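Colleagues,

For the teaching module next term, I've prepared a clean inverse folding example: a structure given as tokens, and then the sequence designed for it. I'd like students to try predicting residues themselves before seeing the answer, so please don't circulate the second half yet.
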């Protein structure tokens, strides 16, 4: 859609090549009745193709010059929103159902995903998200329990969505060419598969113990347990968890049990 723009390092811009855009669109699988939000449209490689296949598309672009150029060329069913996706209130997106697509800048992939997790925790209007991210980031999103990539991102993704790796993109799929490979990942949002009495306590448990993932749980869980006036070893035992295990071995179900034990503390 938009040509001649030089990518700006401060925005982490790597524009998708047209030759790969069609394959990405097939991965997204848009339907005519869908209402899409595109994050970081860049020069419009996906924007143009999505606009042909859906009734409504809102593209959120933080780069004012790019946004202005996109707006001049956008068809009637496309709205260009000049904004930082990390700062906008989701109410401006309107009522759902909404689908998300985008080529996420590597430097903000994690904040954007956590922003989406926050939105979906407060509303069921967002159906899914299909996003391009750095391959290492995708590995963390889809990691199995007990692996080195399993951690905070994996667990919060598992709370919010079913995550699936669609395919990988080589560095040459983008301009300028990044030094890393990328992946297209699909997240289908749904209610959490675990019941917790306090989502805030579960979040504190996850973030606290994974900052000390090399330690055994008796030590890794000490700070969060003491914050709830509990002994870590006793709280772990009450949740049916061996205190000699390490954080990366805990399933989401076990983390939820520990959070419920701590939330029930006087």
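(Answer key — instructors only)
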């Amino acid at each position: 859609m938009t040509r001649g723009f030089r990518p700006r390092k401060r925005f982490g811009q790597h524009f998708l090549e047209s030759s790969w855009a069609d394959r990405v669109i097939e991965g997204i699988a848009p339907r005519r009745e869908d209402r899409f939000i595109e994050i970081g449209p860049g020069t419009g490689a996906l924007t143009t193709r999505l606009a042909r296949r859906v009734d409504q598309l809102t593209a959120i672009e933080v780069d004012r010059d790019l946004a202005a150029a996109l707006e001049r060329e956008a068809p009637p069913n496309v709205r260009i929103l000049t904004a930082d996706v990390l700062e906008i209130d989701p109410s401006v997106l309107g009522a759902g159902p909404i689908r998300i697509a985008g080529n996420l800048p590597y430097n903000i992939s994690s904040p954007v995903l956590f922003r989406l997790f926050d939105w979906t925790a407060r509303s069921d209007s967002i159906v899914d998200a299909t996003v391009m991210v750095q391959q290492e980031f995708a590995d963390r999103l889809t990691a199995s329990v007990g692996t080195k990539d399993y951690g905070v991102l994996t667990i919060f993704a598992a709370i919010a969505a079913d995550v699936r790796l669609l395919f990988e993109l080589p560095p040459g799929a983008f301009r300028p060419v990044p030094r890393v490979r990328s992946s297209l990942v699909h997240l289908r949002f749904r209610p959490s598969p675990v019941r917790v009495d306090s989502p805030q306590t579960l979040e504190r448990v996850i973030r606290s113990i994974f900052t000390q993932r090399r330690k055994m749980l008796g030590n890794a869980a000490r700070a969060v347990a003491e914050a709830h006036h509990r002994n870590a070893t006793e709280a772990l035992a009450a949740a049916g968890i061996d205190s000699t295990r390490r954080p990366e071995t805990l399933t989401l179900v076990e983390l939820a049990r520990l959070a419920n034990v701590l939330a029930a503390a006087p």
